[in-house]
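seq as requested:
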Amino acid sequence: MSPPPHFQGVEPISFSPIYMTRVWGGRSLETIYQRNLPDDQPYGESWEISDRSDEQSIVSSGRYAGKSLHDLWTNHREAIFGKGFTEDRFPLLIKILDARDDLSIQVHPPENLSRELGGEPKTEMWYVADCDPGANLYIGLKDKCTRESFQQSLSEGTVEKQIHAVSPEPGESIFIPSGRLHAIGAGFLIYEIQQNSDTTYRVFDWNRVGLNGAPRDLHIEESMASIDFNDFEPEMDQPDGDSLASCEYFVVQRHKLSKPEEITNTNDSFSIITVISGEIRSSEGRVFKTGDFLILPRNASPLTVEGDCQILRTTLPNV
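struct tokens:
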């Protein structure tokens, strides 16, 4: 069936990844996704969709090739994204995380404290794209942990004994609200969907040094002010139908599709499509495969599914 006339010619938008070296990173972006990394350093993050002042996603091909996400959001907002959005910057930041070693135990500041602490609030969710058997995510506090016992563990260098650990399977997800203590353990490949924020307070870094040989900065005072000390032993989330996460900042759904199904927007607004497995094809013949991210503009032509496929669809709420 041909798409309606108002869909004709509107292409999906993809961006060149922004790669970040991390002491805990690896080379999975190269070995699993066949990406060309800049050098032989450990790369822990690929910023797929970013409108940060210092880290701008640039459109990789098509009509808007060479333009930044901020340019699209500022000058083509209604045409691409839809009506009713008033934020100065695109409100989400989307990443792939490749954790070959444990990340620091960290927390993001809640909305009501972020300005006072000099940071930005950050709520996020993780989708486990792949993981080693038995690999741990560190989420929340162990039962009976108190502010006092946690403070003592900081002085003793034993914070890991205060943190709750879970061992998820690929395909599981978890919501990380601001204030939840957390860390990704070694052996994970994760898709992270978050508020457009780059504020992270490290409270413990496993007594190690960074890539420059010096201990990485810790933010003890800010962390202690931000941690929710009533957040005990959360577990991985259970999907509600297709819905994996829904909050005031984003809505994330997982869809299992097969040929000849098509992917379109469900309302007069854009969506972000992440290919979990399989392939999808645009009307002009571009193929998107596992690990690819794209913005499907509000009036985009449908994407066709090639065989069996799983995707994440991320949208903004209340549109």
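The mean pLDDT is 94.
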